[in-house]
Amino acid sequence: MNGYLVFAFVFWIGAWGLNEWLVRLRAKDPTTRRAIGIAVPLIFGVTLLVIWECMVRGFEIPSILLPAPSMIWARILTSTHILWADFQQTFLKSVITGYVAGCGLGFIVAILIDRSPFLQKGLLPIGNFVSALPVVGIAPIMVMWFGFDWQSKVAVVVIMTFFPMLVNTVQGLASASHMERDLMHTYAASWWQTLVRLRLPAAWPFIFNALKINSTLALIGAIVAEFFGTPIVGMGFRISTEVGRSNVDMVWAEIAVAALAGSVFYGLVALAERRVTFWHPSVRGGRS
């Protein structure tokens, strides 16, 4: 049997046993529990990379089909300036700008809809319809309207993030019970006071759910939109170009950077959620 495959099997068994031992530990120290919580997924991720590397080498898979992680890492080290320029164009300009604009606009419109039953009955069905439109159909239109630079990608991200925020915020504002609203009415609270002190805090879990969903949708939308027109920079542009050149290692390097950026972005939103909604049972129940 190929030595790479044997090593992959042995490594997998060892990592599995180590993770089983770690998750069964009953550590009393919060720092130790936190370290275990970080170590378990880290070991799992390293195991996947080792198996990937050994499978590619053991079965002699051509790099044009699936490059080894070591090959992808080498490409990242030699192409940092290109990857950084693509990251700036796609993530810092298109994703962040579109995410803030789309989520902010969706939140504001949700507040307005909450005040107007007419808008609630008329706009929400349209929102559900537009949110189902495929990004590959929206992106070419936005490129024609706003040009080939990052502004058209921002428009795509705004469309993709606006309606999830709108729908979740409207549902969140309606989640406060009638008894709680009656209590605020008994205290002679105005609509604004009821919104700030009761309904908006009750809606925070719904709002953060939309923010987490949009953190991934924004990156996907920006990358896909770059396939339909962009300057000679950007993650989507690089992926589509390097695939045509059969530079698959560069494609995977861009995918790795996008995955890392998206994971960090999602993690920051989730961390903010824990800080803001510390009172919610889903957060309190997840604490050690």
Automatic annotation (TrEMBL):
Gene3D superfamilies: MetI-like
Record domain ABC transmembrane type-1: where: 104-277
InterPro entries attached to this UniProt entry: MetI-like (IPR000515), MetI-like_sf (IPR035906)
Broad class of where this protein is predominantly found: membrane
Superkingdom of the source species: Bacteria
Pfam families (alphabetical): BPD_transp_1
The keyword Signal belongs to this UniProt entry's keyword annotation: no
Subcellular location: Cell membrane
Keyword Transcription: no
One example of a Gene Ontology biological process annotation: transmembrane transport
Membrane topology category: Multi-pass membrane protein
Segments crossing the lipid bilayer: 33-52, 64-84, 96-114, 126-148, 154-174, 217-239, 251-272
GO CC, any one term: plasma membrane
Protein keywords: Cell membrane, Membrane, Transmembrane, Transmembrane helix, Transport
Protein name per its UniProtKB record: NitT/TauT family transport system permease protein
Lineage: Bacteria, Pseudomonadati, Pseudomonadota, Alphaproteobacteria, Hyphomicrobiales
